[in-house]
Amino acid sequence: MTISQMVTSRAAAALDVSRAARSSKLSAVVMLAAVAVLAALPFAVFSNVTDTLVNLFVLIALASMWNLLAGFGGLVSVGQQAYIGIGAYSVIAFADQGVQPYLAVPLAAVTCVIFAVPTSWLAFRLRGDYFAVGTWVIAEVYRLLVVRIDSVGGGSGKGLAGMSGLDQTLRGALTYWVALALALATIAACYLLLRGRLGLSLMAVRDEETAASSVGIDVRRAKRVVYLVSAAGCGAAGGMITVSSLSVNPDAIFSVQWSAYMIFIVVIGGIGYIEGPLLGAVIFFGLQQLLADYGSWYLVLLGAVGIATALWLPRGLWGLMRDRTGLSLFPVGYFVRGRGA
Amino acid sequence: GGLKGTGGSSSDVLKIGYVSPQTGPLAGFATADNFVVKQIQEAMRSGFTAGGKKRTIEIIIKDTQSNPNRATEVTRQLINSDKVDLIVGSSTPDTTNPVADQCEANGIPNVTTIAPWEAWFHGRNGKPGEGFKYTTLFFFGMKEFADCFFPMWERMDVSNKNVAALWPNDTDANAFRQGLGPMMEKAGYSPIDGGAYQNGATDFSAQIAKFKESGAELFTCTPIPPDFQTFWKQAQQQGFKPKLATVAKVMLFPSEAEALGALTDNIATDFWWSPAHPYKSILDGKSAQQLADDFAAETGKQWTQALGSVYSLFEIAIQAFKEAGDPKDRDEVAARLRGMKLSCMSGDLDFTAGPEPGIAIQHPVGGQWRKGEKFPWDVVIVDNTPNKAVPVGGDLRPTNG
Amino acid sequence: MTEQALLHLDEITKRFGRVTVAKDLTLSVRPGEALGIVGPNGAGKSSLFAMISGDLRPDSGAVWFQGREVTEVPPHTRTRAGIGRTYQVPRPFEHLTVFENVLVCAHQGAALKGRQAWTHAMEVLERTGLAELANTPAGRLALLQRKRLEVARALGTGPRLLLLDEVAGGLTEPEVLELVEVVKQLHAEGLGIVWIEHVVHALVEAVGRMVCLAGGDVIADGEPMRVLADPKVRELYLGGGPETGLADEEGLTDGEDS
Amino acid sequence: MTLLSISDLTVHHGQLRAVDGLNLDLEKGEVLAIIGANGAGKSTLLRALAGLNPPTSGSIRLCGRDITRLPAYKRVSEGIALVPEGRRLFHSLTVEENLLTGAYRRRPGPWTVTRVYELFPWMSDRRRQNASQLSGGEQQSVAIGRALLANPDLLLIDELSLGLAPVIVRRIYEVLPGIVGAGTTALIVEQDVSQAMRVADRVHCLLEGRSVLEGRPRDLTAEQVEHAYFGIGQALPAGSAREGHD
Amino acid sequence: MGWLNAVIQGLLLGGLYALFATGLSLMFGVMRIVNLAHGDLAVVASFLALALVSGTGLPLWIVLVVTVPLFAVLGYLTQRVLLQRSLSSGPLATLLVTFGLSIVLQNVLLEVFSADTRTLDGGSFGTGSFELNGSISIGYLSLATFLLACAALAGIQLFLSRTGLGRMLRASSDDRETANLVGADSRHVYGIATAIAFATVALAGLMFAMRSSFDPATGPSRLIFAFEAVVIGGLGSLWGTLLGGMVLGVTQSLGAQIDPALTLLAGHLVFLAVLAFRPQGLIAGRTA
Ligand SMILES: Nc1ncnc2c1ncn2[C@@H]1O[C@H](COP(=O)(O)OP(=O)(O)OP(=O)(O)O)[C@@H](O)[C@H]1O
Ligand SMILES: Nc1ncnc2c1ncn2[C@@H]1O[C@H](COP(=O)(O)OP(=O)(O)OP(=O)(O)O)[C@@H](O)[C@H]1O
Ligand SMILES: [Mg+2]
Ligand SMILES: [Mg+2]
């Protein structure tokens, strides 16, 4: 007889484990309302607003994916731009084949997964800071390979085909909706993934890899799942970038700057919380919009804000907020109640 | 209600958006931007009549930070937030192409410059014979480079017809590889292609070795400015000293000449604009020489070629507004751009006679950098075969004499 | 032999450079047996656990578990098959709560789901005296609580064979007794147990058989008192001389002598 | 003469008062053992003495000099060395390099690397091995050797016998008088009460950060100690009921 | 002959990479600070030297002698003021601090010096060379850089392995609290190490500036070479970094010999191959 068979009915009855933190019912309602408002926005405001929001959504998607990878999977990658780039180029290539560009965005995610499978084989041989540098170089290799393919424009990049038939206003709105859907999908994916059994294993792997494998977690599989999900998300985001900018340039799309942005957003927002990248992206985006007209000084300020956050707010803004209020929009932890403890 | 779209503005102010790389590696192209904008605003202070109404113009400047993605973004801002009526842009395909792509997609009239037309046209999937509806360009292409460089090569006393060519893998250089290369062969030269390296290289030993081995005494290139500096120094160090260097895309500006120091002497490049060009402003009749002098007086800096080109962007834009029945009608303004013929600060431009519709061609002449008096380095026009209107200021000398 | 044995190590050898941690070592554990392992520091005890749990691959030899060869099987699969282990230096998942630490074991090791997994985790926490700390992040635990958590996690995986590595070190006397009780009870429930410990008197009370490892080899194997009385064990492990100096061992050796 | 004198020392971990108004004097050449249940504050006290946990109030004097606010690294020069809980070896250094870090401050004294190798003979063979590859007990020995090499006047050892084979524990306690005789005073935390009573000149029992019992081993009865251990007047605790209050 | 030339030029280039990677190796490999501002610091040094040369008219070698110690002081201060604090909040915090620093430096340089491309005029020393035979010429500057790299790396390696301070530095990066416990003020130790790292960064920056050109945006593109050199060689081993630099230089040079488009790719592929088949690097330094 094993322990698991010995669970007494008494213990089972007394036990109350909850998944929700305080106020999550209310916040769910608020979030639903917010989503509804966002979805209706193209009918209410001019496209200058929706158009800038597309950037915000892309940032949210990217940062969520990086947070999943680093904050929950412990895989600190500086090379996610590889998938942004592959995603962007797949959209270009699919569109050349006659696929509607918006439909090519999910296909870009699939392409990225296909590329991520063999890449993960190499990347997972590395740990910690080796992994970070290794992924950066892998992304560079992808860039150097892409610029050798003449059919996608070589070093010059290429414009997106298949968009000319669409009415300009409709195109703007469609782009907005697809971007919104992407952001929501990435957040939902993170939430569902982390709420399940896999999520807990992931966090265990992040904290202590050896011990994780000895409690029965298939470490490689767990890591690979997040890596692939993150690749898919970044790929879709890359496709989104192409769809909204209508062209792709290899140096810009494979730039390590993307990783820098992701790190920046996630660390400011709060790493290891699903809400972190959301908050971080909004702040980053706000700063960008507010200061964009001050030329280089805006970047100086942005850098300084990053430094300050890292020094004085290591758990990010959401960490601070959570300490103060206990608020959690997306509770993934477990809380044992009713123990009279 | 339905989708809101971009909306529009209906005032008497005509808004022109201007996109250029004011910061970043390409910033050399934009040194004159602020000055030019001021000049235009000055000239247009009292407004002008267009579409039967008195109009004023407003210019909104955006910086691409030398980054094509950023160029896309700021162009969209101009269209969506600033609701501009027309967009002009300048300097290298990294700017002109994304800007033009956005304008074409959003139906905004657009004119750009300082990018080889091949890179601009083919890089954007232009349909030959048809061109684009909203976007136009004035500059020149491979044939004009050939017309400018070949006569200088002819005049050099060289033992063979090999020409060392340093062309990286980017939009500009690929246009040279595919365009100028075959033309060189037709003219009896053999291009020694160093290979499509990546921008930002730190070592050119392989290319230098190849050039040395070929015995080439003529040299041409289309690199990004920092790479040229690296290459040229290493070439000196490793003993590749061509008799004549005719470079494109680099050594266009005095700052680059200064950065290279003594090694600048007698490097030749293409000049599509200089104070010596006999051109005049269509706005106020100011001559090229006057514009350059004003620039020097106001900023204390030496003139750059971009001065004339950027100036002309606005001349063309204003001309298009003037010619249009309704300057707020984007389709009409775009049609005027495509059909434009004018004589301006950049000489005679004809957008209907180009190699493709909507492209006006300039004819650069050959010039060399020499030690100057007022400024450390000056340009001397040494060969005017392509454009006899430009006076020659000195003799062609070997680069490594 | 391998058929009935719960665990069977067949002539395993493992070297780290010049250090030999196992030399043609053969050892079996019957189902439901409680085996104690003692030996000098660096004898290779923890390494032996690592080879059983799959963290370490032996240079040669084979590991059998429940009649199946598992030498090439990765650690997580072995855990799922029923090998639960603790680490000598605790390795908690610091950002998870104590409950989550054990829950993840119930999910992954014992393949339990939902409420079943929760109750199982809670049950284990109660047995190991951690129930009150269920919602505490493991990173905030004191050393002793960490050691308890190690045991709790191993139990959380629903093992058939429990490997305990120095879980009594640093415990106060009453706590040691308490732990011995827990181990005895687990043993009574039919669990196979292998326990490495330097707190010899605790071991003596809990296990029915003891082996002493030294230099990668079994130097004594059998009934605990007998093993401890073995002159080789006394010399290499307990320390020479007739007077042992340790109160508990005194009692123990006295008992042995009489 | 008095080497160390602690008066009214209070140390907090956040809200928690881990050491609470403690007074303690230590004579030169003495071996003082601190005992107490888990979480009594023993480690915290030692860390405060070594300068790792700043006290909230109270003072620490070493040879009459106030060192309460002295940072940890300066206390080493003053003659304090700690063998910390959990060994804390430098895992990218070899065994010998780990030992040598102990001698960083170059205090003169009897302990040299060679003498430590005499104390733990296995070590000289393994001097080039990476410290992270050592077994648990081996690491503990190196940590002790490292502290000895600082040639301290006051040696603080947390959980001395944890993880050590009996033969090694015995050897260490055999050499302890020698160490103390060479001019070092030792303050040890020992979980094994009987062991502590045997080797120490004096024992000090902590309960929830306060000193509840103090005296020479031979003056104390087993019952006294037991009561002090778990709180006087409190019934002997039964199993897990106690756990939560740690 | 072409191949021999490629190898020789590659080795010399490798010297530059190694010199450039020295500071990174110390900070990344030994102290485990991922310094994303490494490249930008080199550029700052170049601009500083440029400003000194044009501002004071002093000869370049004096400026060199001034800039390097100045940077050492700067390094000590940076460590104490910025990095020290971030160290206690984990590796991501350091990553963000140095990334922020990188952005700040780049853009301040841009505002102060504009985006123009500059170069340091090393005069005849910068462009001079001697001929080994007809087709192989070796630049004085490249050779000097190479020798400097060897000297700097050897010096620091000896410092790390033979001196008490060097040992404490490695100890501190394992466990700062315990380092304090054995008597080292880990903040000071780190400060010294960062000072050394910064001094080598400045030196490398100046060599880079004389060899090629620089502008405020040059830093990041060169950072990756330094990272590769450090990792190919093996984290924690300075000898490894020297070797790593050479391997990278020669690979790139040979790659370019086959096809200039392969230059960077060849370097990256060798790097990935090392990671895949010998993840601890060619000379294993620290345990990963
Ligand atoms: N990865 C490794 N590389 C080199 N040597 C190692 C490695 N791991 C362990 N060793 C050595 O193997 C020997 C056995 O170690 P192990 O941890 O199994 O000992 P142990 O019997 O558990 O000792 P203790 O009672 O002190 O915990 C030790 O001498 C140790 O130094
Ligand atoms: N870093 C810390 N943060 C918060 N609380 C702590 C910390 N370290 C110790 N404590 C708490 O302070 C109290 C005293 O701890 P300390 O480690 O000093 O006890 P101890 O007597 O050494 O116990 P043990 O026998 O378990 O080592 C305990 O309740 C412990 O939980
Ligand atoms: Mg062990
Ligand atoms: Mg303790």
TrEMBL record, chain A:
Please list which residues make up the signal peptide: none
What is the recorded membrane topology of this protein?
Multi-pass membrane protein
Classify the main location: membrane
> Is Cell membrane one of the keywords?
yes
Q: Which InterPro entries does the annotation name?
A: ABC_transp_permease (IPR001851), LivM-like (IPR043428)
Compartments, record wording: Cell membrane
Q: What is this protein called?
A: Branched-chain amino acid ABC transporter permease
This chain's source organism reads: Sphaerimonospora cavernae
TrEMBL record, chain C:
- What is a single Pfam family found in this protein's UniProt entry? ABC_tran
Domain called ABC transporter: residue spans: 7-240
Q: Which PROSITE patterns match?
A: ABC_TRANSPORTER_2
Name of the protein in question: ABC transporter ATP-binding protein
- Matching InterPro entries: AAA+_ATPase (IPR003593), ABC_AA/LPS_Transport (IPR051120), ABC_transporter-like_ATP-bd (IPR003439), P-loop_NTPase (IPR027417)
The protein's UniProt keywords, in alphabetical order, are: ATP-binding, Nucleotide-binding, Transport
Tell me if Membrane is a UniProt keyword of this record: no
Task: Write out the biased-composition intervals (Acidic residues).
Answer: 246-258
Molecular function (GO) terms listed? Answer: ATP binding
Disordered: region residues: 239-258
Cross-referenced Gene3D superfamilies: P-loop containing nucleotide triphosphate hydrolases
Family matches, as SUPFAM superfamilies: P-loop containing nucleoside triphosphate hydrolases (SSF52540)
Establish whether keyword ATP-binding is in the entry.
yes
From TrEMBL, chain D:
Superkingdom classification of source: Bacteria
ABC transporter domain mapped to chain residues: 4-233
Q: Give start-end ranges for the coiled-coil region(s).
A: none
Q: Does the keyword Nucleotide-binding apply?
A: yes
Q: Which UniProt keywords apply?
A: Amino-acid transport, ATP-binding, Nucleotide-binding, Transport
Keyword ATP-binding: yes or no? yes
Check the record and name the SMART domains matching this protein. Answer: AAA
Record-linked SUPFAM superfamilies: P-loop containing nucleoside triphosphate hydrolases (SSF52540)
Q: Which GO terms describe its molecular function?
A: ATP binding
Q: What family is reported?
A: Belongs to the ABC transporter superfamily.
Official protein name in the record: ABC transporter ATP-binding protein
Automatic annotation (TrEMBL), chain E:
**Would the keyword Transferase be found if you checked this record's keyword annotation?**
no
InterPro entries, per the entry:
ABC_transp_permease (IPR001851), BCAA_transport_permease (IPR052157)
Q: How does it sit in the membrane?
A: Multi-pass membrane protein
Similarity remark: Belongs to the binding-protein-dependent transport system permease family. LivHM subfamily.
User: What species is given as this protein's source?
Assistant: Sphaerimonospora cavernae
Q: State the compartments where it is located.
A: Cell membrane
Cite the entry's keywords alphabetically: Amino-acid transport, Cell membrane, Membrane, Transmembrane, Transmembrane helix, Transport
The record lists the membrane-crossing segments as 6-26, 90-110, 138-160, 189-211, 223-248, 260-277
Put simply, this protein is called Branched-chain amino acid ABC transporter permease
